[in-house]
Amino acid sequence: MPVEAEPAETFFPQVSKTVPAGTPHPPDTAYHISIGLEQWESGFIPVVKIQMVHEGKIMDRGPSFPLGSEDHQKVNKAICELLEEYAAGNAKE
């Protein structure tokens, strides 16, 4: 029996991409970028969410983009691609 309750899911991704993180991040670290619905006090809000992933597990910290790397450019490109994909998917409905 767990000592602590599992946190309730508050984010529901609809489209996602993973971008490998550059050095000096440890090997097998990536940025997981998603567009989806996040539960806020006012209801479900569409958001772009960036999470750090290491060895396939979501880390407890927010994303950091080392200066001198192209990580922020790669993540921004992935966000733009996801926004286009999300807009195209919503236009079909």
Helix proportion range = 10-25%
Structural class: alpha+beta
User: Shape, please?
Assistant: globular
How many alpha or pi helices? Answer: 1
Number of domains: 1
Q: Report the radius of gyration as a whole number of Å.
A: 15 Å
Strand content: 35-45%
Pick out its properties.
alpha+beta; 39% strand; 4-stranded antiparallel sheet; 93 residues
Describe the structure.
The protein is an alpha+beta fold and 93 residues long. The chain has one domain. The protein has one helix spanning 71-92, and strands at residues 11-20, 29-40, 43-54, 57-58. It has a 4-stranded antiparallel sheet with strand order 1-2-3-4, covered by helices on one side. A hairpin with an 8-residue loop joins strand 1 and strand 2 (29-40). The protein is globular. The N and C termini lie far apart (43 Å). The model has no long low-confidence stretch (mean pLDDT 90).
